[in-house]
Amino acid sequence: MQKLYEGKAKILYQTDDPEILLTHFKDDATAFNAQKKGQIEGKGSVNCTITAAIYKWLENKGIKTHFIDQIASNQMTVKAVKIIPLEVVVRNIAAGSLCKQTGLEEGWELPYPLVEFYLKNDALGDPLLTQERLEILNVATKEQIEELIKTAKKVNQLLQEFLTACQITLVDFKLEFGLDKAQKILLADEISPDTCRLWDQKENDPESRVLDKDRFRKDLGKVESAYKEVQTRVLKQIASLIS
């Protein structure tokens, strides 16, 4: 297979079908715009498995995704899409950069889900975009932006309900979207502890409750076990819904 693209967390390969790509999830870990690098053992398999389970579940809830099938523990086939160069971030609770940029106290529950757009550009540091900047850059049409916001809010609602059943609080998360050959918007990339900020509802300690990449960012340790705990709870909840 020919490698099409290698990013910080995944590698994309061509397949015999030009409309289908193979995604390989890596164990590599990065933070702070790749200024911090390392490896999380088994991360690729965990993130691939969590993403596959959640995307199949979201499809059943009416969310169109690029996911086709998980063909190995760390590999999945996906529909070929042209990625819209935007990171769509949904925030439910103040944390991370929102606190640094606004002075809000970490853990403060926002009055409503906050949807933000960041330009996918490592060289520029993935800057936050205002509505006017979105229009000037013309990376998506007004109609597409409205659809991205609507879909992001729907995914947030569904994920909050799902993860609450797993005794996990969805603090915030990042989504990426792509256009298929018919120019329809599909949810792409992944949903995993790499792209979500997740807090364990069974823990009150601010450090012990972290179940996401913040354990790597902040050198909290037990990164692998936190990721695997999310996988265990997600798969258990999926199994309970199927049965």
Please provide a written account of the structure.
The chain is globular and about 50 Å long. The relative contact order is 0.16. The protein has helices at residues 43-60, 97-102, 131-137, 142-165, 214-217, 223-242; strands spanning 3-6, 10-14, 20-25, 28-31, 36-39, 67-72, 75-79, 82-83, 86-93, 109-119, 128-129, 168-179, 185-188, 196-200. The strands form 3 sheets. Strands 8, 9, 10, 11, 12, 13 and 14 form a 7-stranded antiparallel β-sheet that branches. The protein has a 5-stranded antiparallel β-sheet with strand order 1-2-3-7-6. The chain has a two-stranded antiparallel ribbon with strand order 4-5. The longest helix has 24 residues, at 142-165. The protein contains 6 helices and 14 strands.
